[in-house]
Amino acid sequence: MRGNRTKPAMVLKDLTVLLECRHPQFEEAREAISRFADLVKSPEPLHTYRITPLSLWNAAAAGLGYDEIIAALARYGKWDVPEEVRRAVAGWIGRYGLMRLEAHGNDFRIVADGAPEADELFRHPAVRACLGERIGPRTHVVPAENRGRLKRELIRLGYPVIDLAGYRAGRTLSVALNGRTRFEGRPFELRDYQREAVRAFFGERDADGGSGVLVLPCGAGKTVIGIAIMAELGQESLILTSSVASVRQWKREILDKTTLAEDWIGEYTGEKREVRPVTIATYQILTHRRSKDGGFGHLNLLRQREWGLVIYDEVHLLPAPVFRATAEIQAMRRLGLTATLVREDGREEDVFSLIGPKRYDLPWRTLERQGWIAGVRCREIRVPLPLDVREAYLRAAPRERPRIAGENPAKIPVLAGLLKRHEREPALVIGQYVRQLEAIAERFGAPLVCGRMPHGERDEIYARFRRGDIPLIVISKVGNFAIDLPDASLLIQVSGSFGSRQEEAQRIGRILRPKEGDNRSHFYSLVSEDTREQEFARKRQLFLLEQGYRYEVDRTEYGLDRTEGKRA
Description:
With 568 residues, the chain is an alpha/beta fold. It folds into 4 domains: 9-94, no CATH class; 99-163, no CATH class; 182-362, 3-Layer(aba) Sandwich (Rossmann fold), CATH 3.40.50.300; 368-567, 3-Layer(aba) Sandwich (Rossmann fold), CATH 3.40.50. The chain is built from 23 helices and 26 strands. It has an 8-stranded mixed beta sheet, with helices on both faces. The chain has a 7-stranded parallel beta sheet with strand order 14-15-13-16-17-12-18, with helices on both faces. Strands 7-8-6-5-9 form a 5-stranded mixed beta sheet, covered by helices on one side. The longest helix is centred in the middle third of the chain and has 14 residues, at 244-257. The relative contact order is 0.10.
């Protein structure tokens, strides 16, 4: 096999790509390969990527073709791209566009004239149940209510559908971005990449766009982009998000950056039930039911008005019942916003088929280089378990061990040392276990924000932190999302949700807002050494490693004096 052994990548026949992370070309190769492959393992000296059908379809939706993908593999691969890889990439990416959903008068049609296997697919029971009459070779009528369901079933069979059927116009909404708001002393305006994201959502032609997912890091202004799309469309909009705090943040941003008056914006939560031209609701209220076997009564909110746009904030958190409702409302434009498309339940295909493909993906480090988000130094500190705790850990049942490791009492002196080292920096301590967080809050005299605290009290603590009245907040997993604390520059994670990649990405997002002067933040993750927590930490870091971040690994004996500075 011909090639150049000095290059950084090894492309294997099974669609695995091994990338040497100490190679001089690592960064540029990583950026090229991550456009069409997923990072699955990250230990040095090799990072492991996997090319999958979904990674290829998202690449195709973003305009990347077979020739560009193979050229990238050839550019960085040590040897010729295996023929098996060429065939697989051609086969999978070639399926994108074979199935088209089109509007004809008052009905929809699935057209598969480029797919010789269409007849077999249309005979599949799950697909057949979505189809109406056959009206031509490889063409069927699709009842409107089955539009989303059909797309979901076909992608599960390996055939993504390009939806060209267009959208129903919602009620007109007179809204525009205003010129009153000041940002850094100047009138507010969209940044260049925010304008690019808006254009990418709508597509070159309206039929090509109007639904899909925009992937940008925390602190990049996803809320502003959503508002700009709402203003560009000019139709009544429903915004679904992860928490009451996020509902209020969206409302503040809309009032600040648009011409809408407050009485045009409704909050639909456990505390309020306002349905207005722009309505902001939580996923939690939509999936609430009075009994285990009862229905999801609030899901009717999705159908109550002629919405022209539904925005799914933190779309990677979209609950299954909302997925089902989303399958029914395909006539509305759908915008997904997220910092990471990673879903721990493996339902990325449902996001692709029901919300839309990835329309825009801006690498985190690109924004960092441009100064729009803070640079972050990431360090994992491995803390040994004290002898008595280790004995308890070894005796415990497997399901109990993560909590024992997470609540390792030896983390407290390490935490104290870190807070002392960064005593002038506004700090957040975040964790999974409330009992542990209560002890930390008491030890350091800091307020604790957790799920049982009323939202009004949380908002007051956040406001005091923003004013500089308090230097430290201890916060539970409610701090993973939608916490607007722009000055926070130190985040210490004392425990986490097993191996959740999305949680790690969201937590680091709390300190990504740009800082005056030295635009740099610090993220520490305290991990109990030689426990399952160490294994979970490796998985948690995958998404951030894919974005180009590095974790330095320190080992310590209850202090910070045995630093080895190894790379994760």
